[in-house]
Amino acid sequence: MTSIQTGTKWIKELLEGHPDRIHDAFRMSKRIFVDLLHKLEADHELQGSQRTSSREVLGITLYILAQGGSVRLTKERFQHSTETISRYFSAGLRSFLLLSVDAIKPIDRQFRDILAEIRYDPRYMPFFKDCVGVIDGTHVDARILVEDQVRYIGWHGTMTQNVMAVCDFNMCFTFALAGWEGSAHDSRIFARALTDDRLHFSHPPQDILINLFTIIQLFVFLNVYMFNKTNKCR
């Protein structure tokens, strides 16, 4: 170790200190951090070791995600070796992946009921009574190996991954598909979500006839329209 300020001591200091400090470090409040820790420990296999607590494993993971920190900076912050930081970061990501399976999904996969936000709002009912959510794509900055960087360069000339997400009218995410290169078109990602059963994309009820090809065409049209509109505004 190069400092007496270990990761355990630092996290304890954050939890006992000013609320802004832990929010700046992990991008969440003390209560959310503690609740998340208990949830991951109980249901999603987050665990530490004899020398490192599960709380510190979560702290390492959140620090890298929130700060975009390198392993080198993180090992200095938490006073662990490069190998230890990499191992615990992988363990933390695995727990988050398990959490996402439980958290990012519709409340009712059969969509048997009309959402209250639609049913009781005359602006939407009955026109959107079969609407189950909203789909959109967003680009997230990515750190990519040199040999793969060209594929990840998006419209704005920076390296990104294209993420498609679906949210319901409660603003809760019900589906997310990440990892696509920034150069991939939204329609291509959407088509994969619709046709790849392994992704578990929630389809509308069987008794509602939907022409998927028409949906994809509309999705492409909207994206091309927004792209052209953006270019005209430059």
Automatic annotation (TrEMBL):
Pfam families: DDE_Tnp_4 (PF13359), DUF8040 (PF26138)
An annotated GO cellular component: nucleus
Cofactor: a divalent metal cation
Domain of life from the UniProt record: Eukaryota
A GO molecular-function descriptor: hydrolase activity
Keyword terms of this UniProt record: Hydrolase, Membrane, Metal-binding, Nuclease, Nucleus, Transmembrane, Transmembrane helix
Domain DUF8040 intervals: 2-95
Compartments it resides in: Nucleus
Domain DDE Tnp4: 135-200
Stretches that traverse the bilayer: 208-227
UniProt cross-references to InterPro entries, sorted A to Z: DUF8040, HARBI1-like, HARBI1_dom
Family membership: Belongs to the HARBI1 family.
Protein name as catalogued: DDE Tnp4 domain-containing protein
Protein's organism: Platanthera zijinensis
